[in-house]
Amino acid sequence: MGFLSDAVVMMRVKWQMRSIKVQVPPEETDLRFCYDVMDDVSRSFAVVVAQLSDKPLRDAICIFYLVLRALDSVEDDMKVPVDVKLKELPKFHTHMDDPNWCMTGVGEGRERELLENYPRVSREFKKLKPAYQNVIADICERMANGMCEFLQRPVVTKEDYNLYCHYVAGLVGHGLTDLFANCGFEDPSLNRDFTDSNNMGLFLQKTNIIRDYFEDIREEPPRMFWPKEIWGRYATELGEFKEEANKAAALQCLNAMVADAVTHIPYVVNYMSSLHDPSVFRFCAIPQVMAIATLTAVYNNADTFQVKVKTTRAESCRIMLNATTLYSSLEIFRKYCVQLQEKLDPEDASTPAIQSSLADAMERIDAQLKKCDEESYSRSLLTRYPGLGGGYMLAMMDTVTSFFGGRREITNHA
User: Fold this and answer.
1) Is 234 a catalytic residue?
2) Tens digit of pLDDT for each residue in 23-62?
3) Measured between alpha carbons, how far is residue 350 from residues 80, 160, 255, 326, 340 in Å?
4) Which end of the chain is more exposed for a tag (fewer CB within 10 A), N or C?
5) Is 132 a catalytic residue?
6) Which distant-in-sequence residues (6+ apart) come within 8 Å of 231 by Cβ?
7) pLDDT in tens, 313-371
């Protein structure tokens, strides 16, 4: 039954990815290039962007993503000397006003192509409404300055760690919140306080930093952002965690990193609960649910130091299909919080801190779930009794619905 259910949800996502695609008119070659690059660089991100109901917001987020992707490609290319980066990054936001600026020989694959064809992004940037342009340019400038700061000094303290994650991810949360507040579908006051949106970004970034240990430690030179204030309690060098003899210390450090990351979950619940537009909600919720699933997978998992630990494909597909409303997203989020709680090692020093954060998060989730009355009795019954085939029946019901009523293409003139 489980195998069949997994097969069904993976087929549904495959259909969804084929059917949900921004259709750009042939004459809009620059915009088509932008969406094609985003689609190739991050297919899952492109799918949630494509489902945004408002064309101006959809285009703005696409351009926002590409501008920051291009900026990150320059910062991340280890072949580019640091002094060149320190010269180029602070002025990167001005290149959107220069229809001729581009950069060659930096990055790889589509990222390199993006920088080489940057005028196409700049031209589309100029078509956005001024409020969107101002947000994108401002976040790009602030992020670039933050990158320059950490090109010149390591991440040592937890304060450094939070600041670095703010620069590269928290600011993205700020920018998206500004875009949402200006789009007309969300509360215009959404951007009065960026605390929750900043924590949304930090939660995603810290999850990625923890998960990516194996890939990052192998770079030459390694680019690691685990704060020494945490890992220094368990080793003299970060690379020691790869060694079997240091497995116990490595797991203690890993769990301490997870304990730091889960402190952001209550703010994530707050932010998700503040959104109104279904497509904006889906855009924000799916990555956050993916993040808690990933943290649950890496906690106390020694494989984190030997491979890139991921959620299963079926699990990821199930999240993409079901994290679509506040009720369903919070239920899934709560499920992973419970799973993480059940995995906690009672002998590990980080367990009390993780338990405290999870208790706070689940209290907020439960309060929000009580406010929701979206779930029908029959769907609730199937959800609560998976042993009777409920999960399979739900998957089949949703598949029939999506196949006959959900196949659609999104026109860029919607």
Assistant:
1) no
2) 888 899 999 999 999 999 988 788 889 889 899 999 999 9
3) 39, 20, 6, 30, 13
4) N
5) no
6) 238, 241, 253, 257
7) 888 888 988 899 999 999 999 999 999 999 999 999 999 999 999 999 999 999 999 98
Q: Among 64, 161, 164, 299, which one carries the catalytic annotation?
A: 164
Catalytic annotation present for 45: no
* Assigned superfamily of 154-403: Farnesyl Diphosphate Synthase (1.10.600.10)
Q: Are 137 and 93 in contact (CB under 8 A)?
A: yes
Output the DSSP codes for 118-184: HHHHHHHHTTS-HHHHHHHHHHHHHHHHHHHHHHSS---SHHHHHHHHIIIIIHHHHHHHHHHHHHS
Which amino acid does the sequence have at 345?
A: D
Q: Which of 18, 223, 233, 408 is catalytic?
A: 223
Q: Which one of the listed residues 211, 282, 334, 364 is annotated catalytic? A: 211
Angle, alpha carbons 232-237-241 (nearest 5°):
90
The domain locations on the chain are: 21-132, 154-403
Is the CB of residue 331 less than 8 Å from the CB of residue 317?
no
Provide the 10 A C-beta neighbour count for residue 386: 15
Neighbours of 188 (CB within 10 A): 11
The DSSP letter of residue 117 is T
Alpha helices by DSSP H, listed for 42-129, are 43-50, 55-76, 82-88, 109-116, 118-125
End-to-end CA distance of the chain: 40
The token duo for 38 is: 């985003």
